[in-house]
Specification:
Radius of gyration of chain B: 20 Å
Order of helices and strands of chain B: HHHH
Number of strands of chain A: 7
Number of strands of chain B: 0
Helix content of chain B: over 70%
Number of helices of chain A: 9
Strand content of chain A: 15-25%
Distance between the termini of chain A: 62 Å
Helix content of chain A: 25-40%
CATH superfamily of chain B: Fumarate reductase/succinate dehydrogenase, transmembrane subunit
Radius of gyration of chain A: 20 Å
Largest sheet of chain B: none
Shape of chain B: extended
Oligomer: heterodimer
């Protein structure tokens, strides 16, 4: 068991109104194999029950526990404390979003961007069979690296472009747009293109690559964005 | 809801972030230089005497030293710009952007030395009178 100091961002809307939040330090023993989420759970269950954060699956698939750990976005359940390499661990809410309480942020703007690109299969033609729209293995393979997103918000929250422009669709929504753009079954390009081909859309990205560094699923949103740009360029030429 | 929460630790600077910040900074400096350049060149309209006067000023040691910085800005901005073009238009450039950055910076540093060392020697000569 190793001693760690957790410096956790705290904001209670009832007590801290008018402030920009505070830092609370917790000195706890961390067992081998603990993730940051395990440490937060320990704090909440044994030290300070008032600490608020989102969590659900602790398996890296629900996307609830996205937060900024030691200045980098990731999901707390996949971040081993020992791998951080520091005895002092800072835990902050995802930046770029409004804080509701402690580590809980308002994800609505993030979801709004996703809805804006219509994140569902759009098809006008009838299915070729009465059962389903089939896809060849090659066509299916095109979706790899684009569909696995768990909506944790780490990418959009790490994006300096999003920090500066809250209207920017962000890496998450643009990757979802790319996912449907390359889907052989989808016919919704015309419906989505106006949202994507916008000054707050695909052209806003400055290829800073923070989203790629942040994604806990190791997806490459920048790749999706440059692919979308190439598609648009091709459509115009 | 808290609009602007305080930050405990600055967001980590990755290669891509640093490349972008430097690209912005050198870009702004180049715009400033361009304005200065146009201002200097416009003195040509005042005839030889006026032009020579301003040329004398920009050949002072201070400007000779700043010119080395200008070379650095141009080289960084050009070669990082090339990196961005490769990232945008090549098939695998997105995956290899860090390696491309390293390669581009190696070329840029080489050219900076090739151009910057003679410029620095010239600067020292002028400084010594």
């Amino acid at each position: 068991m190793a001693e760690y100091i957790f410096r956790v961002f705290r904001y209670d809307p009832e007590k801290d109104e008018g402030t920009r939040g505070r830092v609370q330090e917790y000195k706890i023993g961390v067992e081998r194999g603990w993730t940051v989420l395990d440490a937060l759970n320990y704090i909440k269950w044994h030290v300070d029950g008032s600490l608020a954060y989102r969590r659900a699956c602790r398996h890296g698939i629900c996307g609830s526990c996205g937060m900024t750990i030691n200045g980098k976005n990731t999901i707390a359940c996949e971040q081993q404390v020992a791998d951080l390499g520091t005895q002092v661990v800072t835990v902050e809410p995802l930046r770029g979003f409004r804080v509701i309480k402690d580590l809980i942020v308002d994800m609505e703007p993030f979801y709004d961007k996703l809805y804006a690109i219509k994140p569902y299969l759009i098809a006008y033609s009838d299915p070729p069979t009465d059962k389903e729209r089939l896809q060849s293995p090659e066509d299916r393979k095109l979706l790899d690296g684009k569909y696995e997103c768990i909506l944790c918000g780490c990418c959009t929250s790490s994006c300096p472009t999003y920090w500066a422009d809250k209207e920017f669709l962000g890496p998450n929504a643009l990757m979802k747009a790319a996912r449907f753009a390359v889907d052989s079954r989808d016919e919704g390009w015309e419906e989505r293109v106006n949202a994507i081909d916008d000054k707050h859309g695909v052209w806003r990205c400055h290829t800073i690559f923070n989203c790629v560094e942040a994604c806990p699923k190791e997806l490459n949103a920048t790749r999706a964005i440059v692919e979308l740009r190439r598609l648009m360029l091709k459509g115009r030429l | 809801m808290l609009e602007k929460p305080s930050v405990i630790k600055r967001y980590r600077l990755h290669v891509g972030t640093i490349a972008w910040i430097l690209h912005r900074a050198t870009g702004l400096l180049l715009v400033l230089y361009l304005m200065l350049h146009i201002w200097v060149i416009h003195h040509v309209s005042q005839g030889p005497a006026g032009f020579n006067k301003v040329m004398k000023a920009v050949q002072s040691p201070l400007f000779l030293f700043l010119e080395i910085g200008l070379l650095g800005c141009v080289l960084y901005h050009a070669f990082n710009g090339l990196r961005i073009i490769i990232v945008e238009f090549s098939r695998e450039g997105v995956e290899a952007h860090k390696q491309i950055f390293a390669a581009m910076m190696a070329v840029a540093v080489f050219l900076f030395l090739v151009g910057g060392v003679p410029m620095f020697i010239h600067f020292l000569h002028v400084l010594a009178g």
